[in-house]
Amino acid sequence: MADLQKVSEIIFDYIKTKGDIKADFSINETETNEITMKDGKFTLFRTLFDNDIAIKVIKDNKKAATSINKFDKETIEKAIDEVIASAEAGSPDECFDIAPGLEPKEFFGKALTPDIEKLMNRTLELSEDIAARHKKILLIEMFAKYVRGRSIFINTNGTRDDSEYGYYEVAVEFAGNDGTASTGIAGSFLRFDNLDERLIDLGSIERDLQDAENSLNPIKISDKFEGDVILTPSCAAQMIGGTLMNSVSDYVLISKTSLWLDKLGEQVASPLLTVRNKPWDERIVVHEVHTADGFRAEDYDLIEKGVLKSFAASLYAANKCKVKPAPCSGFYLVVDAGETPYDDMVKSVKRGLIVGSVSAGAPGANGEISGVAKNAFYVENGEIKGAVIETMISGNLFDMLKNIKAISKEQTCDGMMVMPSLLVGDVTIQGN
Predict the structure, then answer these.
(1) Alpha-carbon distance 392 to 227, whole Å?
(2) pLDDT above 70 coverage of the chain, percent
């Protein structure tokens, strides 16, 4: 492992010799232990090492950035010279900036000491649990890993953040199979910071396995109708994430294509919906320490009871559009639970679908989306009639958020987001 303190001194000292420039940089080092299992047996164990340096400079209101994966002094100084030259050749923009200086701070995650033997035991246990609980599942392959990392972030205004983190992940590939029929390949993913519980009981693994079993021998819908759609947590995250990218992110704010550009403080969604961006939520495994601009990351609300509370703007976009920069850079979505049990949501559907995901291209700027419903089940008069294939759903993401009729009490957490199921009305459903 490299001496990150020494590397940071090399970078900072050399930048100081370059005159009046603003700069920030991060040094990252990770060690990953990977485990692969197939047919109930471990087939691979390996350890991977990775490191990188990301450098951003602003000179005379001109910005450039670069990254390298070598830590020697010669490579570092050459990279700094080149990125400064690149900035000098750019176009000036007074909106380029870095965060003000903050007192140095250290951050420590939870799973800093791995238990690889227990991770292997939990992975084997998951394989055995799937075999015991799900007779119609063909387990294709499983991947487990432990990641340990350290990062240093410094800017020329005096900020220094030292952070260490560790976490586990498991990914499962499987298909429904009853000996005569088979489904397509499905998967489930989980990030976690302890090994206290059986993996099959975490995240959406159990539900994903059940859905694959229940997708055998699907039925077809032959007509087109307006109906209700229950978005499972993964699909809800897909739809909400797509809406946010089309409404509150840098590009749509700067290009002024966001339909919510002048909606701050106004109702943009159902009063049932509250969407929070919470990098420091205890259920989010890897916390964002600082934004891409160097501010300390904080939790904030994007939508509260249907009212738009914030944009997800970087410092540059905020300066450009005269709005407040977002307190964090990523999307760590936490959607508040509702008051309706999931089973009651299903019972309330006269005719519609339960949808696990939508296979579609990126939605248009106006929010229009159309795609194939995946991991989907047909519901009629409150009863699940069976899985469906060759079924399309279409609608408008902005309208879908307004047409939320219920939000489930139950939430799913995969370590990266916390999401309930959403019942959305007036969605176009078309078979064949």
Answers:
(1) 12
(2) 100
